[in-house]
């Protein structure tokens, strides 16, 4: 009795647009909820006062930020699989995968620390409230944007070399990735804090556009877009 034929075609993964849009919606909602919150340079007393009077708002922020980590991780895995399906064997795809997982983990940590800060606001000291606030900010700012930049570069560089997406999108992604990497220095000076929203929202634009424009398989690439030797 012959064995059943188990051969299957290449699996490119699910459509990446859904997790990209879900991540974007949760990100934008979290920013809207966080309007009016103390900045990283706020005093310990004002940080604790805000946490005590806005516990519900902080809990909502924590859930949104933590929730955003999930579709970002899904998008990262889906795009990594799609790049492999398209013939990307260089380290760029793995770098993007590592960056995306680290970025999602940083978002999750930021959300969980914010939840702890809200849940303990009535019993902690101003100093501890400040520590929790700064930790949440660091994880969601440079701790997120820098590995997120690695994700963008990990998608953009192979797309440039193999001509997988239009060049304007690729160069946009590379510029945003470079600015995102520069946000490492926000740990030393607040003068570069402007790099954080550029990396965060510029990256969102890139991953949504890449979700639409990145081919699902090599068969969908035009003859002009295919390299001579992959």
H/E order of the elements? HHHHHHHH
Mean pLDDT: 89
Main sheet: strands, sense, barrel = none
**Parts with pLDDT < 50 across at least 5 consecutive residues:** 1-7, 222-230
What's the SSE blueprint?
Layout: H1 17-33, H2 44-53, H3 55-85, H4 91-119, H5 126-140, H6 142-162, H7 167-182, H8 195-213
Characterization of the model:
By secondary structure, the chain is mainly alpha-helical. The chain has helices at 17-33, 44-53, 55-85, 91-119, 126-140, 142-162, 167-182, 195-213.
Main attributes?
single chain; 230 residues; mainly alpha; 8 helices; 69% helix; 0% strand; disordered N terminus
Give a brief outline of the structure.
The chain has 8 helices and no strands. With 230 residues, it is mainly alpha-helical.
